[in-house]
Amino acid sequence: MISFVKVIVFSFIFAIVFSIILSALNKSGLQLFVSIQKRTGELKRKKLYSDLTFIFLITLCAGVKAKYNFSDIVFGILLGLCFAIRDAIFGGFIGSDWRRGGKNW
User: Fold this and answer.
1) Collapsing DSSP states into helix, strand and coil, what is residue 12?
2) Range of 17's domain?
3) How many distinct structural domains can be found in the chain?
4) 99 lies in a domain?
5) Whether the Cβ atoms of residue 75 and residue 7 lie closer than 8 Å to each other
6) How many CA atoms lie within 13 A of 44 on its CB side?
7) Is residue 103 part of a domain?
8) Can you tell me where the transmembrane regions are (predicted)?
9) 3-state secondary structure of 104
10) Sequence-separated contacts (24+) of 68-72 with Cβ below 8 Å
């Protein structure tokens, strides 16, 4: 039970950290995710694709953890990175929900 809580806490913390970093990179001269965000912004079933990506990334991270025997902390960091990338691709950086009144989709 404690390992599950560790994974949740670390994935939440690092999702915020990586989301801030990726948001800064997206707003900089690199504009890292702008072209992908344009394509995903045109999707009609954006929520569905985002949810499917979420499930795929959790499965992928769990497989990587099992294969390489990562600790719970590293697994949480990996999940946080994957969630931040998914949020960046689908345009849902952490904090953007609050600025828009919770209407992300």
Assistant:
1) helix
2) 2-92
3) 1
4) no
5) yes
6) 0
7) no
8) 6-27, 73-95
9) coil
10) 72/3, 72/6, 72/7, 72/10
